[in-house]
Structure formats: C-alpha cells, structure tokens
Amino acid sequence: MSQTPDLKGSSFPLTVLHMYEHNTDSAIRYLDEKVAKAPAFFKAAPLVINLSQANSELDLAHLKQSIINIGMVPVGVTNCTNKHLEKLAREAGLAVMTGTNRPDKAPVAITPSKIIRTPVRSGQQIYAKDSDLIILSHVSAGAEVIADGSIHIYGTLRGRAIAGASGQAASILCHNMQAELVSIAGNYWLSEQIESHFWGEKVILGLTDQTLHCDLLNIK
C-alpha cells in the first residue's frame, strides 16, 4: 500500500553565526578560517544567521552567497527584530526562524539516556534526541556523537562530541580526551584548542557564560 508524504516536527543540531553590525567581510574571513581547520565537520553544514545585533545595512544576499561559496548551507535567520532585515532575508531566500535564545523559552524535556554499548566507528553518527548519551566504549576518529543533553564516554574520544545540540547547557565527560572537536550549545574547540595537559586524560567539559571550560576528573 502506497503512503502519502507526511510532515512531522523534529530538531537538528545547527551552527549559528552571530552577526554584529553589518561587517560581512569579517564574518566571511572568520568562517573561512573555521572551515579550513575542520573541513569535514563544516562541509555542507547548515548554518543559521543570528541577527539580534545586526543593523539594517547588512547585505544578506551577499552574505548568503559568500557562505555558499565556502561550502556551508545558509538556511535562515533568527532573532531578527528589524523589519527591513526580515524583508531582505525573505528576498534572499532565507527562512525567518524563531530565536532559540529567548529567556522565556521552555527547556527541552529530557527523556531517558540513550546508551551505546559498542564502539562508535569512523563514519558513524549517533544522535540522542532530547536526552543524554552514554557511550560505554570508544569513539573513533571520524565518528560523531551528538546529544541534546550531556555526553558520557567511558572510553577514548577520538572523534567529535556535540552536547547541548538543542542549545541548552550540558557537559561532556570522557575517560581519555583525544577529540577532533568538542562542542556544547554551539560553542566548540578543535583539537588544537584543547590544552595539552588535558590530552589523554579523564576530563569533564562544561559551559559558563557561553565559554567552554575543561577540568580533570580525579577518578579511577
């Protein structure tokens, strides 16, 4: 029996570019540098443009095309309170999305943790929607683990770990830090940004005032 198409609500981790005033050139240089450091992570990655601090002189059409040229996919704008900018966004073919950082936004309901008992191999992606993610083994280089909540890895983290994917505070715990990338609520470090004294150690990462921080875990 044939089935008709169906629309359902869902949530996906999205990278957000925060614009300040109308300097598109500096924003594109910044994105170029980030993509050059982690091309596999950012290739064809969906991008949302936060306009909460942008002004009406921002050239959204130019910004959209520049983002496409560096290999990312601009899908829409958020936190746009300027009607002129909203009009320009629609004319540029960008979706106008409801902001995710409003103080009155209700937190995402967290469901029971998703538990993975086997190693996460290169090329695999594991996503724990609306929950914490617990990995009882290793995460290989080239693998990606994502959770709307926190991530606990009871082995070596060599791939990418993205916690708080829905935008809320979370933490990442691993028993051997060798990550390609770690991210919490859109704030991330690449491997070279992780301080050497945390490398190969048991650590916990958190987020304070939109800044990542890392601490050693004194557990056996």
UniProtKB/TrEMBL annotation:
**Keyword Iron-sulfur, does the record have it?**
no
Which branch of life, at top level? Bacteria
| Ranges of residues in domain Septum formation inhibitor MinC N-terminal | 6-74
Q: Name one Pfam family in it.
A: MinC_C
Q: Name one GO biological process term.
A: division septum assembly
Q: Where is the Septum formation inhibitor MinC C-terminal domain?
A: 115-213
The family database entries (Gene3D superfamilies) matched by this protein are listed as: 2.160.20.70, 3.30.70.260
Q: Does the keyword rRNA processing apply?
A: no
Keywords for this entry?
Cell cycle, Cell division, Septation
Q: Which family does it belong to?
A: Belongs to the MinC family.
Q: What does this protein do?
A: Cell division inhibitor that blocks the formation of polar Z ring septums. Rapidly oscillates between the poles of the cell to destabilize FtsZ filaments that have formed before they mature into polar Z rings. Prevents FtsZ polymerization.
Could you describe the subunit structure of this protein?
Answer: Interacts with MinD and FtsZ.
Name the chain's protein. Answer: Probable septum site-determining protein MinC
Organism encoding this protein: Vibrio inusitatus NBRC 102082
Q: Which gene encodes it?
A: minC
